[in-house]
Amino acid sequence: MMISLRPVNEGDLSFLYRLISEPDSTGEFQWYGFQNPRTLRDRWEENGMLGDDGGILIIANDGDEAGFVSWRKEVANRASYFWSMGLIVAPEHRGKGYGTQAQKLLVRYLFDHSTVNRVEASTEITNLAEQRALEKAGFTREGVLRGVGFRAGEWRDGVLYSMLRSDLDPTPEA
């Protein structure tokens, strides 16, 4: 399996919209209702979905769109910040290890291109597949976040994971 991350191009906008707005594509843990399709286009036209406060990259499998990773800046205190990241893998590509590989690639990218010391990710407590993927990618489980996310009419617990710069494997992925 050889996946890569690449910037979003205009032709990817309908794929991204499908993954964030169509219930059959978002997956059980990412369906938050229909989204404004114009929001993605506006953001792409503004900055190509790459900015100082975060971004989106396409997960590509031999050039084909397989999903996306995203990250956003979170302020830790007046002197520092960290990245919070997430991803969605398209249904036809789930269960093949793409999420784990994409998380590894994104963490390395973020540490290589910013001064942050911490990248974190969270998921619902019942999303065992994502928890396994984060752990395989080298993240450390930090704890349960009680009642942190509202989805499908109820408040749900989450699990917080992190990776510090010192946790990163010194050898980049081939």
Automatic annotation (TrEMBL):
Positions of transmembrane segments: none
Stored InterPro entries: Acyl_CoA_acyltransferase, GNAT_dom, N-acetyltransferase
GO molecular function: acyltransferase activity, transferring groups other than amino-acyl groups
Listed name of the protein: GNAT family N-acetyltransferase
Species of the source: Nonomuraea cypriaca
The UniProt record lists the keyword Cell membrane: no
Keywords, alphabetical: Acyltransferase, Transferase
Family: Belongs to the acetyltransferase family. RimJ subfamily.
Residue stretches making up the N-acetyltransferase domain: 3-166
